[in-house]
Model the fold of this input.
Amino acid sequence: MQKVTRREFLKLAGTAAGIIGLESAAVGCQVAGQVGGAGPQPAPEIPMLGIWPFTGAFADVGPVLDRGMSLALEEWSYKVIGRPIKYVKRDDETKADTATRRVEEAIETEGVKYVIGPWSSGVALAVSEVAKRRKVLHFFSGGTEDISGKRCHRYSFQWAAHAYTAADTVVKTFLRENPGAKRWYLLIADYAFGWSLEKYLKLVGEKYGVQVIGSDRHPLGEREFSGYVSKAVGARPDVVAMVNFGQDAIQAVRTFYNFGWQPKQPLIMSWSAGVEELVQLEPEMRENVWVGTNFYYTIDTPVAREFVKRYRQKYNEPPGYAPAAAYGMTRLVLRAIEKARSAEVPDVIQALEGWEGEDLLGKMSIDPRTHQTLRPYFFLRCKKKADMKDQWDFADLIGIGDTPQPRELNECQDIGPL
Amino acid sequence: MGHAKVAKLRPQLGPIIPWVLLGVVVLILPDLMRTTVATEVWIFAILALAFNLLLGYTGLLSFGQATFFGAGAYTAGLLLIHQRVHPLVALAAAALAGGLVAALVGYLCIRRVGLYFIMLTFAFNLMAYFIVYQASSITGGVDGLPGVPRPPVNLQVISWDIRPGVSYYLFVSLIFLACALALKRVVDSPFGLVLQAIRENEARAAALGYNTSAFKRLAFVISGAFSGLAGALYGMLFGIVPIDTIYWVTSGNVVFMTLIGGTSSFFGPVIGAIFFIWLAETISVRWERWPLLFGLVFVLVIFFFRGGFVEVWRRLQALLPRPGRKLEPDRGPTKD
Amino acid sequence: MENLIPTLTVQVFNGLVVGMLYALIGIGLTLILGLLDIPNFAHGALYALGAYLLVQILGMTGSFWLGLLIAPIVVFILSMILERLMIRPLYPVGTNYVLLFTFAVSVIVQELIIILWGPVGFSVLPPTMLAGSVELGLFSYPRYHLFVMFVSVAVIFALWLLLERTRYGAIMRAGIENKTMVSALGIDVYRLFTVGFGLGAYLAALAGVLIAPIRGLTPYMGVDILPFAFVIVALGGLGNIIGAIAAGLIIGVTQTLTTQFWPQGSTITIFAVMALILLTRPQGLFGAR
Done:
C-alpha cells in the first residue's frame, strides 16, 4: 500500500464526517477498501525483509543474523531470476508489537513480499499473523512448535528442527555416551517453547528408560539461579537437562559451574544457539556440558563448509546457529524463487512445499502439510580447555538425529488456502 | 486561583484555537509518518492525557499506567476474539476494566504520597505483569494474545469497515478527539478544579472540607478508564495484545512522553506523544544504536526546551498577538 | 525429604549472598534518593559500568583485585562530574526533569557499553584463590560467594562508620533529614549532593564488580537489576540505610526460598511481598513518618 496522499486522506476525512450525517457512507467504505487493498507497483527489484533484534533482550543476536542473511544475498550477488534484490532490514526490539508495526511498514513502503526472521518465538508468532493477513512469505527459525503446529498457515515456514526431533537427538545421543545416567532433572524456561520441549523430553525419555526425578520451571528473564541449582543438586540426579535460551541459559550454566556441578557431573543445554551462547562462557564452565543445537560450524556438508569458510574470512569468527539460520532461510527462499522462476509469493510457496534437496545441513526437505523443515539436529560435547585447538574450538560434534515428529502428535490440522 | 473568572474574560475564540490546530494535525499527520505510526500516536496521546490527569492536574506520579492500559487491551482482546463483540462494546468493556483495576489499585495506593505512591503503583504494575505472564492459557503469556479482529463498526443504518489502515486511523483519531474533549471537560469542571487544589496544597483542600482521598481515587478511576480504552485500541491496531502492553517499560514511556511534552498544559502530553513516537520510529530505521540518539535528544530537550514542547509553543505564542490568558497555571506539578 | 534441612539452609545462604548485593545497590540508590530527592534511573547503568570497567582493567592488567579497587573509583569520579555539570543546573527546574535526565543517562550509558564492548555478553572467572568450594559441614559452598558476602558486610560496616562516626557522615545524615537546616548552618548543600551522588554510584559500581563472576556481563544487566533496586529502596524506607540492608536480605531470601517451593513464582512473590509490606507499613520497614 502506498502512502496515502493528502487528497485521498481529506476525501476520507470528509467521508467520515459524512458517516455521522449518514451520507455517502457506502462510498467511504469503498474508498477505504480501495486504499487498503491497493498493492505496491510491481517493482523490478525484489525487496526482502530481515526483521532482527538489534535492541532488547536479544540485541546481541541481531548483528550476526544480519551477517548470515547478507552472506546468502552476496552469494547470489543480490540478484535472482535476473532481478535485483533489495535487502531491507528492521529492528524488532524483541517486541511483538514493534515487529508487527515494522513488518507492516516494510510491506507498505518497500513492497516487501519475503520476510525472514525474527529471532524469538513470541515475536515470530506475531509476525506470522501479519504474513497470513498480508499474504507475504514468512520464514522463521526458532523454538516454538506452533508455526508448524496449531497455528500453521500457508504463508509461514519453520527452519529449525522440530522440538520432537531435538528431544530425540538429545536423549538418544546422551544416553549412548552415558548409558548409566538415567536419573534426569529438568530446568525449563516457563513459556510455550520450554513446555513443548519439556513435553517431548519426557515423552522420548520414557522410550529410552529415562526417569525424570524433578522438573522446575523458571520465569523468562530469570537472573538468579542459585536457588534452582541448589534444589537440583539436592535431588542428586545423574544429569541436569535444561530447556532455556540466550541469557537465561548462559546464566544457569554459569551458576551450575559456580556451585561445582560441572565438571564432575554432566549438564545438558537441550536447545542452544551453540557458538553464540558458548562464547559467553569461560572454557572451565563448559567442561562436561552437552549441547543440542540447530547448527554447529564443523558440520561436514559442501554448503556448510563454504559458508563457514566465507564467514570466518569476513568476520574472524565461526558462525553459530543464528547466522546459519538466517543464511539457511535466505538460501531456501532464493532457491525456491529460482525453482518457481517467479517472484510471486504463491508460486514460491508452492515451490517450497515438498521441496527436497542438498543444502546447508545436508539432506533437507519441507513437509508440505505443516511447513516444517525436515532436517537433522546436532548434539555436541564441549571440550576441556586443554583440548581446545583455538578459542573457537568449543566442542566435538558427537551425534546427529533427524527423527521427525510422529504425525499423530502434530496439531496442524489444516494448513489452509493461499 | 480565579480560573473561572479568567475563563469568562477570555475572547470567545480563545479556547477553540487549540482544537482547530489539533484537527489540522489529525489531518496532516498521515502525511508526515506512516498510517500505523500515526494511529499509534493518537492511542498513546489518549494514554498520556489520561496519565496527565494524575500527574499534571492532581500531582500524582503513577508509575503503573500500563496496568490499566494492559487491563483494557486484554479485556477487549479476549472479548473480540471469543465473543466477537461490537468494537464499541469492546472499547466500553476495556474502559470499564481499566477503571475497575484502577479503582482497586487506587483504593490500595491513594493514601500513600510521593515516592511511596510511585513505588506502589510500580509494584502493582509488576504484579499485574506476572499475573498475565502466569495465566498464559488465557492471555497467551509472554507470546501475547494473537488474532484480535477488527470487526466493522455497525451503527444500525450503516456499517463502517475499520479493517483498512486509513479507516482505522480515522476511527482512532475520532475516538481520541472524543476522549480529549471529555478529559478537557473533566479538568475544567469543579471536580477538576478541586484536583488542582489538591495538587497545589492537599492540606488546604482538605481543610476546605473536601474529601481529598475520594477525589484522588475518582481521578484515578477516570484515568484508568481512559487508559484501558487506549489499550483496547492498541490491541486492535496490531491484531495482537503483546505482553509489553502491561510491562513497566510502557508505564515509563508514558511518564517520559508526558514530561517531554510538558505537564503544565492540557495539550502538552499530546505533543509529547507525537514527538516520542515519531522520534523512535524515524531514527530506529536509520541506525541500530538508535536509543543512543534518543537519549541525547532527551538531554537536549531537558537543557534547552525545559517545560517541554509546551514551552516552545509558548515562546512562539509570545511573538503573536495574544489570544487570551492560559487557563492552566504555568508551573508544573510539585512532588508530594 | 530427608535432605530438606540442608537444602533449606543452602537456600537461605543463597538468599543472603544475593541479598547483600541487592543491599549494596539499594543503599546507593536510597542514599541518592534521601539526599538529592531523585529516583536515580541511571543507577542500573552505573552498576553495569562498574562491571564493564572491571573487565577492561582485567584485560589490561590481568588482576581482578586491581579492578575491584579501581573500577568503582572511576565510576565515583565520573558520576561526581556528571552531577556537578549536568544534574546540578536542573535542581531549580524540578525533580521531574532530573528524573527524566537520569533516564536519558541510563539509555546513553547502556548504548555506549554496546558500542565500546559489543552487544555480546561474557563471563568472568573468580580469581584463582577464590575458585572452588568450601566445606561447611552440612554442605559445601562456593568460596567466591562467601567472599562476596564478606566484602559486602565490610563495605557496609565501613559506610556505617563513615556516616555515624565522622563529621562528614553526620552532615550527610543531617542532609537526608533536613536540607534547609543543613544549609542554614552554612554548609554547602550542593557539594554534599555531589559527594552523595558519587558515593551512591560507587556502591552501585562496586556491586557490579562483585557480581560479575556470579552473573557475568551483558549490556542489559542494568535494566535487569533496576526494578529490584527500587523495590529494596521502597521496602527499606526512603533514605534509610539500615532499611535497605534489611530489605535486600528479605528480598534475596524470599527469592531463593520461593524457588524451592514455587519456582515459577520466584519473581512475582517479590513484588507481592513488597506490596504487602507497603500496604501495612507505607513508610517502609524502617522509614520514619
Summary: Chain C touches chain A at residues 3, 6-7, 10-11, 14-15, 17-18, 114, 118-125, 132-133, 140, 142, 144-145, 213-216, 218-220, 224-225, 255-260, 263-264, 266-268 (CB under 8 Å). DSSP finds eleven helices and two strands in chain C. The two ends of chain C are 45 Å apart (CA to CA). The mean pLDDT of chain C is 90.
